[in-house]
Amino acid sequence: PWDGLYKKSVMVSGAAGMLGSAMVDILIYLNEEKNAGITIYALGRTKEKLLNRYGRYTEKEYLNVITADVTDEFGFDFDTDYIIHAASNANPRMYANYPVDTLLTNVLGTENFLKYGKSHGMKRFLYVSSGEMYGQPDESVTNGFTEEYCGKVNYTDPRSCYPSGKRAAETLCHSYISQYNAEAVIVRPCHCYGPTQSLSDNRAISDFIRKATNGEDIVLKSDGSLERTHCYCLDAAQGMFLVLLCAPNGQAYNIADNRSDASVRKLAEIIAQNGGCKVVFDLPKEADKKGFSKVTRAVLNGDKLRALGWKPMWDLSEGTKSTIEILKNI
User: Fold this and answer.
1) Which of 63, 83, 290, 307 is spaced 20 to 30 Å from 248 by Cα?
2) Closest CA to 188 of 229, 245, 141, 142
3) Which one, of 310, 321, 236, lies nearest residue 272 by Cα?
């Protein structure tokens, strides 16, 4: 129900990131093609990245580019209807090198937005968590992680900054609901991909796509047996808007297109086929392994979001082919 956004104001953090920018793209599209009259606040840490990302649209009155570190006290002051917190370090190298920043962006950033929204007319808050918050699966997980599951996370591992930060931020959302009657909902994306990926994103799927786009061989640093759920960025973004507008207060939803469940090896082969390149194997260096997930199977169950009405459009083959074509064209 896109008209639920018409004439509203929407603030998106992480607006230069993969999912945040996909959401802003959709808002721009609604304004340009549907005359939706949405006021957009696109937040990011680097103004240059935001200006480069949105180009000529930054001259539009409806698009407001805001430079801010979400862990600091906000220097802006205006009311907004919806706040979407999608800012976070989202690749293994960042977890390894900046665990403190990763943790605080999720926890302090969520606190700052909830506190800001509470005093600035916010109708609802959407927190972009992650499927990594589930931790390690046990024998009860037979059909993918469902939203009520909560597995083990090794808190002594610096990489736990990411899933632990996501868990703490989700708890903070529920605390604001309980104590302040806030409106807040949560999404837990799987391994998303698409042409909105960052050039510095070193997650496996982003690296594979970058290699295929450049006509280089895809390098696997394992036997590729780990299984993941994947989702095209625009399918993920429309699912996130659906949760923002339609989900009951306090609910969490996996963003997971189970048509695109695949092992890392199968993923590499699909991307290589679409990019006209080969898959080769290489053992990882210790520095690279430091940021690797210890989870052996990270399949998310997407039934709950589908029951809400979500209908993803691109499967893994179509989505990666589209991504490579778009990146080559630009």
Assistant:
1) 63
2) 229
3) 321
Strand partners, 10: 40, 82
What is the pTM for the complete model shown? Answer: 0.94
Residue pair 187/243 in contact (Cβ under 8 Å)? The answer is yes
Residue 316: both structure tokens together: 């893994």
Q: Tell me the CA distances in angstroms from 201 to 116, 182, 312, 315, one per residue in order.
A: 30, 34, 24, 21
What confidence tens digit (pLDDT) does each residue in 261-320 have? 999 999 999 999 999 999 999 876 655 555 555 566 789 999 999 999 999 999 999 999
Enter the tokens of residue 248: 């009951």
> Does the CA dihedral 229-109-244-322 come out positive or negative?
negative
| pLDDT reported for residue 91 | 77
If phi > 0 it is left, if psi is from -120 to 50 it is alpha, else beta; for residue 35 that is: left
Beta strands in 123-244 (DSSP E): 124-128, 184-189, 191-193, 218-220, 227-232
| 3-class SS of residue 136 | strand
